[in-house]
Structure formats: C-alpha cells, structure tokens
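## retry 2 of 3
previous attempt timed out at serialization; input unchanged, resubmitting
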Amino acid sequence: MTRPKAFTEREDDSLTEFEPLLQMLSHRDVLSDYERELVAGLKRRIVRIPKGGELVATHSRPSESCLVLQGFTAREVYLKSGERQITAIHVPGDFVDLHALTLKTMDHSVVALSDCEAAFVPHGELLRVIEKSQHLGRLFWLSTVIDAAIQRAWIAGIGRRSSVEHLGHLVCELFCRLEAVGLTDGQSFKFPITQPELADILGLSLVHVNRTLQDLRRRGLIVWKGGTLTVPDLKQLAAMADFDPTYLNLVVEPR
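## retry succeeded, writing output
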C-alpha cells in the first residue's frame, strides 16, 4: 500500500513535549521531580506525519521507539486478500512500539489516522533512563502490559459484544484515555476516525457500522459532528456497553 512520504522534522525547543506521557504515567503512580527530569530530558526527533503516513513498518527493526504527541495512530495488520484489521488505537502519551526494545522485528505496522506529531526516542536513551530509575522502567513495562489488557478487551468486543455494545465500549475507552491526558472538553473529544476505519476496528461492514452509529445516535448516547464526538451521559453509555475501566489501570498506586 502506498503511503504519504511528506514527513517533516522540526527542532525540539520545548521542555513540555513529553507532557502527555508524564500525565499518563502520573495516572498510574507518583513521579518524583528527578523522574520527570529524566523523561523530559530524553533525546528525541520530533516528526510530523500526515494522515495515512506510516510511523512503523511491518518487518522493520526499529532502533527508536515512537511516542505520539498529537493526533491518533493505529496498529494495523493486512491480510493476503488486502483486507485490513486495526488492532489498536494510540493517542497522545502512548508509545506505539515500546515492545520493539525486546521484540526487535515488528510483525505489524503503525499508521497515522490523522495528521500527527511524534517523538522518536533512541532505544539507547530509553535503556539509559531505565538504568537510572527502576521505577520508570516498571512504569514503561506497565504501559506494554496495559496495551495487552486493551487488546483483551478488543478481542472480547469482536467475539462476544453486539455491534452497538462494541462501538459504545470503544467510545468509553477513548474518552477515558483522552481525559487522562487532558484532551477532552467537557463531554466531547476530537474523533478523527472515519466510518471505513471504524469498520476495520470493529470487524464490521461499512453498512453495519453506519447502522450501529445511527442506533447510538437514536438512543441519544453519542453526537458525532465535524470530527468531534460528544457523549451526553458517559455513565449511561458505559452501562449499555458493559464498560468497566479497570483494564485501563488509571489508578495511582505504588508500582
């Protein structure tokens, strides 16, 4: 598949580039000032990626890990038939390929679902920080464990939830994850995902996705206009979708 190549790099002149990551880590445990300085001081390349651009390629052997700073990205797997399954969505504050530190060879690709900005951190830098702070090492490890927990929830959704429950569960999950990094506005958040992309996430036909969206709208559970998704009553949507945020581990406790 042809990908846009108009990537641009810019100077990293801000000490707050990693604020989404620090916010996400701080929702799992208390960070010391020293640990915050270690994270903020990580050497990185800041890259702007257009919608559809590939951040990580299948079968590549990355020497850097990619942290999303702005926009939405997705893990994707293509079948021989050309069909695609999106297996994860990553939002600001997420490392999309921290597991490449140990996996070495990537078995999937990561693509931008919107115009994005990302920081590429050399693996040597991550190892240096982990050696200086075992606590940060455990928190980075936790982020990959949570990726696996999200994967379990998605598998359960594809296998056992109705389409309306599955989509409702996804909306609840994204709301909680974006709220943790300060990217919700009241009951709303930016939702740059298209209906064909939702079909690739949910494992449904485009027609079925459209009907599912209409069902949620008819019940007054979501409002989706101009790339912004509003959830009038999160508790009501969560109850309908049987959403339990435990798997997201958004609890501050010793790790």
